[in-house]
Write a structure and sequence with these properties.
The complex is a heterotrimer of chains A (about 210), B (about 350) and C (about 625). Chain A is mainly α and about 210 residues long. Chain A is built from six helices and no strands. Chain B has a five-stranded mixed sheet. In chain B, strands 4-10-9-6-7 form a five-stranded mixed sheet. Classes of the chains: A mainly alpha (about 210), B alpha+beta (about 350), C mainly alpha (about 625). Chains in contact: A-C, B-C. At the B-C interface, helix 3, helix 4, strand 7 and strand 9 of B face helix 3, helix 5, helix 8, helix 9 and helix 10 of C.
């Protein structure tokens, strides 16, 4: 199949993201990329674990963390992962409108998550946990902040795709792009699950 | 380990190698002329591994030379196409198994020695025997401080240790990473700025005599412009002599009689005393000890770790430390001194002796 | 669009190219340039160390030269030169028209290039980095000026490039193989490229993190490595070596691949024990991740960690040994022709065995307390990197030069280069083993007289001049070849075994007019043995789809280059932050453009291909 072909719901393949060689390459390449990203975050997690109680007299995680906010943020992000699954489901069914709708919801949830995270950082800074306060503070902001920047990048990626393709619908050229964006979004979600566990839950237990 | 070596068939190869290698380097510096228990252990591991490896190199070289000569293209064979061989399981298994066996032979003593050399239980503070000597080594840009915590004595640049017994070290750095290494006596350990490393060394009396009583120590971790010049010296003396030295150090105070030296003392007390102490007993915390203790400066082996120990060189150092040790922390801390002042200072410093 | 309509100026062509063969040439030129710079730095150091108490390069300047030598050689010479050969050869070897992501291929090159240029800008802007290629945290935090920042940002940029290239090769080798080219029929060089790319994928992210943390500490007030505020410098050492050790295999595995090709070709035999060779490569790649702490035996990790890592390290000797013997037995019974590439390949075997056995010696942790950070280690890794990787690069360059440029290099000059380089190499580095054992630490800018180190250092310096002479002759050879070199046939050496020798030299833009059908290992050799002229096609002749050239990879990389200057100076000048943002806007803006502009590529028509193939056959 060629990328430029015009397709209908009947001719649209079951796995549009891998129907062309280009799509297959992107699919595989992106999985490899996520493998590298995993190692990147693993290195940061290891660093954080080594430094998480090195507060140098500054605020500790038990004193700071506001679990309700974090919990809501977690729920938002988990839900957004689910909505992006719906979006891809509709993509595979060649239902462009519904896909756009669900991606739209995903973006809104992601934005809400990002807002909460910024609010959270703002609060912590005001309670005396500056970036340069201690090894713990540096490690915390770097790990969680890098995840946050991934969220921001993912959001702008999905938005760009939605706007760019708003008028022309699905084809085999953009289907892999949507698919990968959602894959990236899932990855961000999985990283957050680990952050929630390692940074917040373990931080509360001490 | 030694017994085990005797039964080893490569003994002859060993002795030849040992002879060859012993010709290398100076007895006060070379790892190939080990001068203590630790260096001995490491040397025998080095010999064992070298022997195995020489064996491997010889086998490979023989096959290699044979193949290259025997199967080179000869005139008239330009178009000959040799038989295409896929492989040979028996051969492939052979050259998998033999290396494994060789490695096991090396791995066992390696693991054993790793644990032996890390045995620092006797330095445990609560259970420490009163004769067990512990030295705190603190590495700084570009000088070494040696503290004898059980005696309250501090010296720098020249480490003094008793021979024929295990000496235990706490090693750390006060600024950047360094590494504490006395090649002839044993391997190095890093001086980190975030934790304290512990290990032990033993200095052999006979080997110390061969090296004229002085071993050379080096910094082995890149630490800045003068990394190459961050040398120290080790005086290894019999236990009794060591005890006497410690006693003298405990009670040492500068005794200045010479009038020129007295002048020097005055200058010192004005410009230098903020960083340098002149008595080996220095109660200040280590953060305050930002420069070498000069309590027994007159007895030192070297000026600034690298220059021969005489007044001439001392003056050179005081006049322009940067030209001797680039990047050192003393440059520019004491203003401009006249030649006369430097002469007086040198006289004074040279008079600081315990021996 | 026809080929004629796309004729542009040569410079614009190379700035925008996404053709793997042209990118290979870019890598070769840029990597070669950095190799010369790194070599010059090495020569300067050897001049300083020629005699005791020399004052040619003192203190910090020596440290800068030493740091830049190591950094340049590893990241900006060895890696890109290998990428040059991989780009030139791998797609041809697997019977593909291009790599999986031509655009990313170009991006990878430009990121590497700008990273290298950025790093070298430090020479003119207040001094180069001076904390060694490892840039250990405590020293690199202490280092004044911006040298270290140039190192951090430059490596970060080029690191992205390397990662991208790694992913590209992984995907290319998985999805782009011609019909019949199963994994176990892939040429060894392709196999090693595959494994090395996997190592890049998993080893570079820890480096990225290590450099990131160091940069945050130095430029943004973080405290990862400041013990006073709870930081810990050992973390940096771990992160660096989790990258650093696999990096050795990233370099040396493709080198093994090159030698496997060269030795089999010029022995006129198939590779002995092909499957065990593949197995050994994969095993080495895997074990490469399990041994990083052997670079940290003296850090004080304790006897348990040291013992475990010592034994783990030793195990790598087994697969490496398998490879050595397989090479020897490939030559056994062969008809060995000593061309220039073969000379490097043959002499590699004993040279590399030397480096390998000293590696096992170093693995013995208690003995390593003596070797560590001495000239013994310097000798060891130069035996591995020069005796392995540089020999391979020289072999590979001579071997595939006709395929890349369509002209042969002069064999007589090639052999002179070889002799000079080989003699110089052993002269320089063999004696350094003994210097280390005799008590000479590494990374020292000088040594004192009367410590028994004078003669050895002099010999070593003389050797360095031999190597320099060899490289100069090589450059002369390149110039002569480009002016009056003999035109290369498709099967330039007459004994080619793999697919790249079936297409004209240099290969046409589309590589294969028809994608070939692969019927076994050494596909081209098989066809030749059956008396056929060319390959068996797997598809009818038709239009060929090609990717469009693009200037965006260049612009994306340029944006990061600009941005890096901004970040570097953002604490010193008020223009820092705006410049940093401007650079990022350029980069992300270009990525945005790439995302929204549809790029379907173009087709080369069948008639044009028939025309070109005719011409290729005639010439």
């Amino acid at each position: 199949m060629h990328v430029e072909e015009k397709l209908t719901a009947e001719t649209f393949p079951a796995e549009p993201e891998r129907a062309t060689l280009e799509g297959k390459n992107k699919f595989l390449g992106f999985w490899f990329f996520l493998g590298g990203e995993t190692v990147l975050f693993a290195s940061l997690f290891a660093t954080f674990i080594a430094l998480r109680d090195k507060t140098a007299g500054g605020p500790t995680s038990e004193e700071l963390f506001q679990m309700p906010v974090v919990f809501v943020a977690t729920m938002l992000l988990l839900t957004s992962s689910l909505t992006s699954v719906y979006a891809i489901h509709h993509m595979k069914n060649f239902d462009f409108k519904k896909m756009q709708l669900w991606f739209g919801i995903t973006v809104l949830l992601g934005l809400a998550f990002l807002g909460l995270e910024i609010f959270e950082f703002y609060e912590y800074v005001h309670e005396g946990l500056k970036y340069s306060t201690s090894a713990f503070s540096s490690a915390f902001y770097t790990l969680v902040g890098l995840h946050g920047s991934h969220v921001a990048f993912g959001l702008s990626w999905i938005l760009t795709l939605m706007i760019r393709n708003a008028k022309r619908g699905l084809n085999l050229y953009n289907a892999p792009k949507f698919y990968l964006a959602s894959l990236y979004w899932h990855f961000i979600d999985v990283v957050w699950v680990f952050i929630f566990t390692v940074v917040y839950l373990m931080g509360m237990v001490g | 380990m030694k017994k085990w070596l005797h039964s080893w068939r490569l003994l002859s190869l060993f002795s030849v190698m040992a002879l060859l290698l012993a010709g290398c380097g100076k007895p006060f510096l070379s790892t190939l002329q080990p001068a203590g228990e630790v260096a001995d252990k490491q040397y025998s591991l080095m010999l064992l591994s070298t022997a195995i490896m020489v064996l491997v190199v010889i086998v490979v070289t023989i096959i290699f030379v044979y193949v290259v000569i025997r199967f080179r293209q000869r005139k008239g064979q330009e178009n000959k196409i040799p038989k295409q061989v896929e492989g040979n399981h028996k051969l492939e298994i052979t050259w998998t198994v033999i290396p494994i066996i060789l490695l096991i032979i090396l791995a066992v003593p390696t693991v054993k020695a790793a644990f032996d050399l890390a045995d620092v239980k006797p330095m445990n503070k609560e259970k420490r025997d009163k004769d067990t000597l512990v030295v705190n080594v603190r590495a700084n840009l570009y000088w070494w401080e040696f503290e004898y915590p059980d005696y309250g004595v501090i010296t720098s640049q020249d480490l003094v240790v008793p021979t024929n017994e295990r000496v235990y070290f706490n090693v750390k750095a006060s600024d950047v990473k360094h590494s504490f290494w006395i090649p002839a006596v044993g391997g190095k350990i890093d001086a980190n700025n975030d934790n304290k490393n512990q290990f032990w060394l033993e200095f052999d009396q006979k080997d110390a005599e061969k090296a004229n009583g002085i071993f050379y120590g080096k910094c082995a971790e890149l630490c800045g412009p003068s990394h190459a010049l961050m040398d120290f010296k080790v005086k290894a003396v019999p236990r009794e002599e060591f005890n006497q030295w410690i006693e003298k150090m405990k009670n040492a105070k500068p005794v200045v009689t010479d009038p020129v030296a007295k002048q020097g003392e005055a200058i010192f007390n004005k410009s230098c005393i903020g960083c340098h102490a002149v008595t080996p007993v220095d109660k200040r915390p280590e953060q305050a000890r930002t420069a070498p203790n000069l309590g027994n400066f007159g007895d030192r082996e070297r000026i600034a770790g690298v220059l021969e120990h005489n007044e001439e060189n001392l003056k050179k150092w005081l006049k322009d430390p940067e030209s001797v040790k680039p990047g050192n922390k003393m440059t520019g801390t004491y203003g401009q001194l006249t030649d006369e002042q430097i002469d007086a200072l040198a006289k004074y410093l040279m008079s600081l002796k315990v021996e | 669009m026809s080929t004629a309509a796309r004729k542009k100026s040569l410079i614009w062509d190379y700035l925008t190219t996404v053709d793997h063969k042209k990118i290979a040439i870019l890598y070769l030129i840029a990597g070669g340039l950095f190799f010369l710079i790194g070599g010059l730095e090495a020569l300067l150091m050897r001049i300083q160390l020629m005699k005791p108490n020399n004052d040619f390069l003192n203190g910090d300047l020596f440290n800068q030269v030493m740091t830049m030598h190591g950094t340049t050689m590893i990241f900006f010479a060895a890696t890109p030169l290998l990428f040059a050969l991989m780009n030139a050869v791998v797609p041809l070897q697997i019977g593909a028209r291009d790599v999986a992501f031509p655009f990313l291929n170009a991006l990878g090159f430009w990121l590497f290039f700008f990273g290298g240029v950025f790093l070298n800008c430090s020479w003119f802007l207040g001094g180069a980095p001076d904390a060694g290629w490892t840039s250990y945290a405590s020293l690199s935090l202490e280092s004044p000026g911006h040298g270290i920042d140039f190192y951090l940002l430059g490596l970060q940029i080029s690191g992205f490039g390397t990662l991208i290239s790694g992913i590209n090769f992984l995907v290319t080798i998985v999805t782009m193989r011609a019909p019949g080219m199963t994994f176990m029929r892939m040429p060894m060089f392709t196999w090693t490229t595959f494994v090395a790319s996997a190592l890049i994928l998993f080893a570079f992210p820890p480096l990225t993190v290590g450099l990131l943390l160091l940069m945050l500490d130095r430029l943004f007030g973080a405290n990862f490595f400041d013990p006073a505020l709870g930081g810990n410098t050992i973390i940096y050492e771990h992160l660096f070596w989790i990258f650093g050790h696999p990096e050795v295999y990233i370099l040396v595995l493709p080198a093994f691949g090159i030698f496997s090709e060269v030795i089999a070709t010029f022995s006129r035999k198939r590779l002995f024990g092909y499957s065990s060779m593949v197995f050994a490569v994969v095993l080495i790649g895997f074990l490469g991740f399990m041994v990083w702490a052997h670079h940290m035996f003296t850090v004080g990790l304790g006897p348990v960690a040291n013992a475990i890592f010592a034994v783990a390290t030793m195990t790598i000797a087994v697969p490496t040994g398998i490879k050595i013997f397989n090479w020897l037995f490939t030559m056994w019974g062969g008809n060995i022709r000593f061309t220039t590439p073969m000379l490097y390949a043959v002499s590699f075997i004993p040279s590399f065995v030397m480096g390998g056995v000293t590696g096992v010696m170093l693995a013995s942790a208690p003995a390593d307390y003596q070797y560590h950070d001495t000239y013994f280690v310097v000798a060891h890794f130069h035996y591995v990197i020069v005796g392995g990787v540089v020999f391979a690069l020289l072999a590979g360059t001579h071997y595939w030069w006709p395929k890349m440029f369509g002209k042969m290099l002069n064999e007589a000059l090639g052999k002179i280069t070889f002799v000079l380089f080989f003699v110089g190499f052993h002269l320089t580095f063999f004696i350094q083993h003994f210097l280390g054992l005799m008590g000479m630490p590494r990374r020292v800018f000088t040594f004192l007289p009367n410590q028994g180190l004078d003669t050895g250092n002099l010999v070593s310096t003389i050797g360095a001049f031999f190597m320099t002479a060899g490289v100069i002759i090589l450059l002369i050879n390149v110039v002569i070849s480009s002016i009056s070199g003999k035109k290369a046939e498709a099967d330039a050496w007459g004994v080619g075994r793999t697919l790249e020798w079936a297409v004209s030299s240099p290969a046409p833009e589309y590589n294969f007019a028809q994608i070939p059908l692969v019927r076994g290992l050494d596909a081209y050799w098989l066809e030749k043995m059956e008396g056929k002229k060319g390959l068996t096609p797997a598809e009818p002749l038709g239009d060929i789809h090609m990717p469009n050239p693009s200037v965006l990879p260049f612009v994306i990389s340029l944006g990061l280059f600009v941005s890096a200057f901004g970040f570097l100076y953002h604490n010193d000048y008020s223009w820092g932050l705006p410049v940093a943002i401007l650079g990022l806007v350029i980069t992300f803006g270009s990525m945005f453009l790439r995302s929204i502009i549809d790029d379907y590529g173009f087709h080369i028509h069948k008639d044009e291909i028939i025309e070109a193939e005719k011409k290729g056959v005639k010439a």
